[in-house]
Amino acid sequence: MFEQLTQLVQQFGGDAVVNNPAVPNEQNEAVMEHASGSILDSLKNIAAQEGGAEMIGKLFEGNNAGDASNPVVSMITEQLSGSLGEKFGLSSEASSGVAGSLIPKVLGSLIGGAKDPNNPGIQISDVIGAISGGNGASSGGLMDAVSKYGGMLGLDKDGDGQVGIGEVISAVSGGNEGSGKSGGFLGGLFGKLFGKK
Fold first, then answer.
1. CA-to-CA distance for 72 and 64, rounded, in angstroms?
2. Which of 92, 98, 132, 175 shows its CA 20 to 30 Å from the CA of 194?
3. Roughly what angle, to the nearest 10 degrees, separates helices 2-13 and 28-48?
4. What is the pLDDT of residue 196?
5. Is the predicted pLDDT of residue 184 greater than 70, yes or no?
6. Contact at 8 Å (CB) between 76 and 60?
């Protein structure tokens, strides 16, 4: 997932970073690289907190991931803003501007892409695996949260009000088993959860 995250930061970093006179040109690449790592680290930290999996799960509901007022989005924005100031010496105004412009767009596209079955570039399993960082307990909580909000993703195929593991496997693998993705869901999710990167 980090590769897709980096691509999104570069995609949206044009206005937020490159064309921003508050960010010295020689720092553009470093700032965007730092932003990618900071977003992933923040998501991992939030997921590891009590109630964090639920908060991450709610990102999959509607357009929450692109909403600057969403608690997860605002937390990540604040963390990135603070670290940009510390690491690159940007003013608080410049740091807030970069983070505030970048985070909702990047998270909105990342989660939106994971929810879109027609987007082969990023899978829900990749997001869960990357955020859980191979922690079985954390990944289980995230799977529960995604299952809880899965009805909103159209994952509840049998309409019973619950998203079973079979429905998640079907949705996440998306019929990719034959496309060289090494077992689709099992290779993608469980491989990442248990440390095979």
1. 9
2. 175
3. 130
4. 42
5. no
6. no
Alpha carbon distance 8, 168 (integer Å): 25
The identity of residue 75, as a single letter, is M
In the chain, the percentage of residues whose pLDDT exceeds 90 is: 44
Per-residue H/E/C for 134-177: CCHHHHHHHHHHHHHHHHHHCCCCCCCCCCCHHHHHHHHHCCHH
C-alpha pair distances (Å), 138 with each of 111, 145, 162: 18, 11, 20
Q: Residue length, the chain? A: 197
Number of continuous H segments (helices) and E segments (strands) in the chain: 10, 0
Comparison of pLDDT for 180 and 88, the residue scoring more: 88
pLDDT score at 120 = 79
Q: Which amino acid is at 145?
A: A
Measured between alpha carbons, how far is 3 from 21 in angstroms, rounded to an integer? Answer: 27
Q: Which residue has the higher pLDDT, 121 or 16?
A: 16
Residue type for position 24: P
Q: How far is CA 144 from CA 51, 56, 83, 137, 194, in A?
A: 12, 11, 31, 11, 18
Give pLDDT tens digits for 100-157. 999 999 999 998 888 887 887 887 778 878 887 755 555 556 766 666 665 545 544 4
Burial of 27 (0-12, 13-18, 19+ CB in 10 A): middle
